[in-house]
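Researcher: I'm preparing a figure for a lab meeting and need a structural model of a single chain. I don't have an experimental structure, so a prediction will have to do for now. The sequence is pasted below. Please return the structure as tokens so I can convert it later.
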Amino acid sequence: MKIYYSLFFFFFIIIIKSQGGFNVVYEADYKLIYKNQTKNAIVQDAAFALLMNEKESYYKNINQYVGDSLRLEKKLHENSPIDEQMKYISDFPENIGTTTGKIYVTFKTSNEYFKYEETNDIKWQLLNEFKTIGKYKCQKAITKKYGRTWIAYFTKEIPLPFGPYKFSKLPGLILEVFDDKDDYHFTMYNFRKRKYYCSSANLHPNAKLVGKEKIFDYQRKELTNPTLYNKFIEDPEERRNLLKKAENRAKNYNPIELNIY
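Model: Understood. Here is the structure written out token by token.
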């Protein structure tokens, strides 16, 4: 199983973003607790950086953020040892740029780089419910998006209309957001002012632009791709066992987005 995970994650290394470099003024860091299987799910966690200025945000897994910076500095490359590269991969390969009107997503799958755009049309219902998160007074909001019902807590004390993943367009920074089944639960653990240009946001500018429907749910499809195992596993019996396990995982896969809209 360890070999399987290593191979699966290796093929989802992400090194690009569609919008180019990014001028960072603020950074919020989030912890995600998640269950990406519907049966016998193991609770896992991951960390993400949300880089922002007043007009747009840029979001990616922190491990990949560090790895991309090392690639830019030529300290990490395709010929680096697998164990070294494994330090900078994630279940969540997407790089996500958000503006008022658009969401830009870039990632790698099947040894190709893709990007897609979608309209930022999320609509929230603000509720007259409040709680304190850290030192911030937060208000509750709710929305239905991507096949799930999401609950968010935002603070007007940080007047930035952004949040983790694709969540935005509230009158303040989102400090916590989770779905009603609590399969995916984001919590901010750090916020600070920054001022620098993130060059590693544009390591591969030639990603192929496709419609979201073309590559939606790609991770489930990749799980059962036999070439993933044929190329690296010589023993036929081991390949069959790994593929069978992958098929079970694909059947019970529980992605953050259950549908396109």
